[in-house]
Specification:
Layout (H helix, E strand, L loop, with lengths): L10 H23 L6 H25 L11 H27 L8 H32 L4 E6 L3 H11 L6 E8 L8 E2 L2 E5 L4 H7 L2 E6 L6 H13 L3 E4 L17 E2 L2 H5 L8 H8 L3 E5 L4 H11 L5 E6 L2 H14 L5 E5 L5 H11 L3 E4 L6 H6 L1 H21 L4 E7 L8 H20 L6 E7 L1 E3 L5 H10 L4 E3 L5 E2 L1 E3 H14 L5 E4 L5 E2 H11 L10 E3 L18 E4 L5 E5 L5 H13 L6 H11 L11 H8 L1
Parallel strand pairs: 1-2, 1-5, 2-4, 5-6, 8-9, 8-11, 9-10, 11-12, 12-13, 13-18, 14-17, 15-20
Antiparallel strand pairs: 3-4, 6-7, 16-19, 18-22, 21-22
């Protein structure tokens, strides 16, 4: 089509039209000046003036290259260049007028005519360019396939989102409906588009309209509503997008590039947790707080949340240099008034940790340092014992020595009925701090509490970042087993509950968190593929690789002999677990740690199994130890 060509008007044609407009505007200026009845004297002077203004205008067009832009894409820069050319030309003509009069000649062009010509030239030169651009865009857009979209949120954000989408020339969006949960808005219109009930009308809208995308334009939408919308959209292969919060708009304006895909983490989120902020503040404010493993997924988020409570000093300890540098930079930027220290150190290094406790004398210790990857610890059990057991024991003992008020151990659901070395090492750490608390009860004011939860979304090494990398690479997504399930919790939610449990703990408790319903990893893979606008097993394959060493199908938060006691917080319970006498525990742990020097994996894991009788290996070389022990 003629109008779809980028060279809709060649340069010579634009130049010719501009020249013809000069002649027309000059004549129109005379008509308007003399009320459409030009005196004979002025008619005789017109040729001299037309030559002057024509030469000046042509020179301006050439100097400023007003004909060089693609007229179908006229921009503000093109309009600015045209304005400067015409304005300078008019001033030049006025100067010639003045010089002619000073030399005793008549004015080349009456000043009144020159002013009218200037205004007419501006209007018509820019006007025809804009008219061509509008016609071109209308015809070009009409030749594209419309991309129907629904917007959730019939408010100002929804209105801004609609205008942003409709300005996107690349995709040719057409908003066919708004949906909302507010009954008073249903059946009304917003910018000429009808508003429907999000709870009852969405499926019908998707059935009757060829909708390609749904944009959630309301950031504070509840987790349940968001899941419902996404589930319905995925059923009809409709892509779901989300606008950022208003605070993240660029220069106060929403851009199409900022509207991103809904992430799988958002579907697994739950509604915000109500925290006892005063209780947490009482424990943290104006106190010296040590966080071990501060560069890890959990440790770094604990640091971020503690920083909001204005501790007297926050100590970030980790042995990972680069991640520690990154969290230091973030905290310094986000909390410029916070007093904090960054310490590189290994929690298993006795001299280093003695120096840290002696120097800072922390009031509260959040112990998040640990090795956590199941398959890796299965092949390196000595390191699991060294860091997860010895590291915990050393830090807990130092908390007593230097009179810390509270020691909070961050544990895992894999410590329940462990089937792997990592889970068993964390269970031994739990046993130690709990027995130590009971042993010292009444003898010292240091209290020990344990927090136990499942997988956290997006943490280092977790399945979601792995799936995302595999998606970016074009697949396949690897799942160990079709029926493998896991509990999931967001990192901020998990850390909020750690702070809450830490503040309420009186000593000796193992707090477990409400993890919601377990999620099939295969379902997670399917949803992640669908959220990317692709089809599972068609665009992206899902491959089952078999359970890894030490891995089990279903995670547990309590073993069979345990039950729970509720707390004032509905998402936090206290596990009623078997208690061990400290002298026995301390002796056995010393024996297990002593085996580290021999680097004999079988002997080491055997000692762990004796200490944790429920530790039954799964899909691991250490299963032979269970056969001997249980036979």
């Amino acid at each position: 089509m003629f109008f779809t060509r980028r060279n809709i008007l060649p340069r010579w044609a634009i130049f010719t039209i501009d020249v013809m407009l000069v002649l027309c505007c000059y004549y129109l200026a005379y008509l308007l000046r003399f009320n459409f009845s030009i005196p004979e004297l002025e008619l005789n002077l017109m040729p001299r003036g037309i030559v002057t203004i024509l030469l000046i205008r042509i020179a301006g067009f050439i100097i400023f290259r007003t004909y060089s832009g693609m007229i179908a894409y006229t921009s503000s820069e093109d309009a600015q260049r045209l304005f400067i050319s015409i304005t300078i030309g008019t001033l030049t003509a006025g100067l010639f007028n003045f010089i002619s009069h000073e030399m005793g000649y008549a004015y080349l062009i009456p000043f009144s005519v020159l002013l009218i010509e200037y205004l007419a030239e501006l209007v018509f030169s820019t006007g025809y360019r804009l008219a061509v651009k509008i016609v071109y865009l209308e015809i070009a857009q009409s030749s594209k396939v419309k991309r129907n979209v629904i917007i959730f949120g019939a408010d100002n954000n929804g209105s801004v989102t609609k205008r942003t989408l409709e300005r996107d020339q690349k995709h040719n969006y057409q908003v066919v409906a708004f949906i909302d949960t507010k009954p008073q808005l249903v059946k009304q219109q917003l910018e000429g588009v009808r508003i429907y009930d999000a709870r009852y009308d969405l499926e019908a809208l998707l059935q009757t309209n060829e909708v390609k995308e749904l944009v959630i334009a309301r950031w504070e939408v509840s987790a349940g509503m968001k899941r419902s919308i996404v589930e319905t959209c995925l059923k009809y292969q409709v892509k779901v997008l989300h606008t950022p919060p208003n605070s993240q708009w660029l220069n106060g304006s929403l851009k199409t590039a900022q509207i991103r895909e809904v992430r799988i983490e958002e579907l697994l989120e739950r509604d915000p947790i109500a925290l006892d902020l005063e209780k947490i503040k009482e424990q943290v404010s104006n106190k010296t707080i040590l966080v071990t493993g501060a560069a890890g997924s959990i440790g770094s988020e604990i640091v971020r949340q503690l920083a909001t409570f204005n501790p007297a000093l926050l100590i970030l300890l980790d042995q990972a240099e680069t991640p520690l540098y990154e969290i230091e930079h973030e905290i310094r930027s986000r909390f410029p008034k916070l007093s904090f220290e960054v310490v590189i150190g290994d929690v298993c290094n006795s001299n280093r940790m003695h120096n840290v406790f002696q120097t800072f004398k922390p009031n509260v210790v959040f112990h998040a340092a640990a090795y956590k990857h199941v398959p890796m610890m299965e092949t390196n059990p000595s390191e699991a014992v060294y860091t997860n057991v010895l590291g915990t024991k050393l830090c807990a003992d130092l908390a007593v020595t230097y009179k810390a008020d509270k020691f909070v151990l961050v544990s895992t659901d894999k410590a329940v009925n462990p089937t792997n070395v990592m889970g068993a090492s964390k269970r031994i750490a739990e046993i130690y701090v709990q027995s130590l608390d009971h042993h010292l009860s009444g003898k010292t004011h240091t209290r020990f509490v344990t927090t136990r939860f499942g997988n956290v979304l997006g943490s280092n090494g977790s399945v979601i970042p792995l799936f995302r990398r595999q998606l970016d690479a074009g697949g396949p997504l690897t799942v160990t087993h079709p029926e493998v399930t896991r509990y999931f919790m967001t990192i901020p939610e998990a850390c909020q509950l750690v702070l809450e449990a830490g503040s309420m703990g009186q000593g000796g408790e193992i707090f477990i968190f409400d993890m919601g319903e377990p999620v099939r990893i295969a379902d997670l893979a399917v949803k992640m593929i669908a959220l990317s606008g692709l089809e599972p097993q068609k665009d992206i394959d899902i491959v089952y690789t078999g359970l890894r060493p030490g891995e089990k199908l279903y995670e547990e938060l309590l073993n069979n002999g345990e039950n729970t006691t509720p707390t004032h917080h509905p998402k936090i319970m206290i596990a009623r677990v078997r208690e061990y006498p400290y002298p026995e525990v301390n002796q056995k742990i010393e024996q297990v740690i002593h085996l580290f020097d021999g680097q004999n994996n079988m002997e080491l894991v055997k000692a762990m199994k004796e200490m944790v009788p429920e530790f039954i290996s799964n899909n691991s070389e250490f299963e032979k130890l269970d056969h001997k022990r249980l036979s």
